[in-house]
Amino acid sequence: MLIVTPSDFSAAPAAGASALFDWATSSNGQQITDHGQCAAALLPRDDDVVLVLPPRAVSWHRVALPKVAATRLRAALEGLLEDRLLADTTELHFALEPGGRSGQTVWVAACQKVWLRSWLQTLEGAARPVGRIAPALWPLVPSEAPGASPGASRSFSLDVPSNIHWAYNENGQTWLGSAGLLGVSCTLLRETPLGHGTAADMVVTALM
């Protein structure tokens, strides 16, 4: 598995062939075997490439999906979210939480379609096509563990003790990303970076 993300970890447009990526490799999806930073053409080769999206590039929305055919799901999402989003819904890419389907109340992730496509094309042009896309942070859901205390939360696949907080650098600014039952938020902490976060720093979140 090769995990990559734009090196400045921002929602800025892709810089084409000159763009730098932070990357990490894992042979089992649990431990990092190597990591670094380089242009797309110099990334390690791997059959399983995962693109990690920066926290502020993705917005999260809790919606009750009507029971509709898969071919009508996109139209249903646009109708539910058009009043919540600043951008035109036709300009956005949507993704449901793992296992989410029509007829359920689910989390929906949204990001700029052109922005996402540009990063995918950069990696594809470097012969590193992306097989999966993952957010760096995502909302938690109520824990289903036996005996879990009221308000206990979990990631979609792993139990966690409480909210997740993560400080990271973006374009010379330090942000605090927080994930909880109410969604994901990003708060500006300072404009002088504490240090650049690498793919190795984010790999635990990306693999969850």
Question: Residue ranges: pLDDT <50 for 5 or more in a row?
Answer: 193-208
Shape: globular
Total number of domains: 2
- For the terminal residues, how far apart are their CA atoms? 14 Å
Q: How are the strands ordered across the major sheet?
A: 3-2-1-4-8
Series of H and E elements: EEEEEHEEHEEEEEEEH
* E-strand count: 14
- The structural class is alpha+beta
**Major sheet details:** 5 strands, mixed
- The fraction of residues in strands falls at 35-45%
Helix content: 10-25%
Mean pLDDT: 81
Summed up, the helix count is: 3
State Rg: 17 Å
Description:
With 208 residues, the chain is α+β, with helices and mostly antiparallel strands. It has two domains: 2-57 and 113-207; 59-112. It contains three helices and 14 strands. The chain has a five-stranded mixed β-sheet. It has a three-stranded antiparallel β-sheet with strand order 5-7-6. The radius of gyration is 17 Å and the shape is globular. The two termini are 14 Å apart.
Question: Keywords for this structure?
Answer:
three-stranded antiparallel sheet; five-stranded mixed sheet; globular; alpha+beta; disordered C terminus; 36% strand; 208 residues
Write the layout of secondary structure elements.
Layout: E1 2-6, E2 20-25, E3 34-39, E4 49-53, E5 59-64, H1 73-81, E6 92-96, E7 105-112, H2 113-125, E8 132-135, E9 141-142, E10 153-154, E11 159-160, E12 164-170, E13 173-180, E14 183-190, H3 199-207
Parallel strand pairs: 1-4, 4-8
Antiparallel strand pairs: 1-2, 2-3, 5-7, 6-7, 9-10, 10-11, 12-13, 13-14
